[in-house]
Amino acid sequence: MEGFGLLIQGFWNALSPVNLLFALIGSIAGTLVGVLPGLGPTAAIAMLLPLTTLLPPAPAIIMMCAIYYGAMYGGSTTAILVAIPGEASSVPTAIDGYQLTLQGRGGPALGISAISSFVAGTLGVVGLSFFAPPLSRVALAFGPPEYFALAFLGLSLIISLSGRALLKGVLSAVLGLLTAMIGIDPLTGTVRLTFGQSLLMAGIEFVPIIMGLFAISEVLLNVESSVKGILADKKIDWWPSMGDLKETWAAMLRSAGLGFFAGLIPGCSPAVTSFIAYDIEKRFSRKPELFGKGAMDAVAAVEGANNATASGGFVPLFAFGIPSGPALAVLLGGFMMYGLQPGPRLMTEQPVLLWTIIASMYVGNVMLLILNLPLVGIWARMALIPFPILGSLIVVFTFIGAYSLRFQMLDIWVVLLFGVVGYLMRKLSFPVAPMVLAAVLAKMLETALVQSLLLSKGSPLIFFTRPISAVFMAIAIFFIVRGVSLQLRMRAGAGEIEESE
Amino acid sequence: MIKSLRAGDIVSGAFLIAVGAATIAGATRIEWSTGGVLHPRTLPMLLGIALAAGGVWLMVLAFSKKYEDKPLEWPDRRGRLLWLASLGMMVLYGALMPVLGFLATSGLFVSGFIWYFGKYKIWFAAAWGLGAVIFIYALFIWLLGMEMPSGLLPS
Question: Is there a domain that residue B136 lies in?
Answer without folding.
Answer: yes
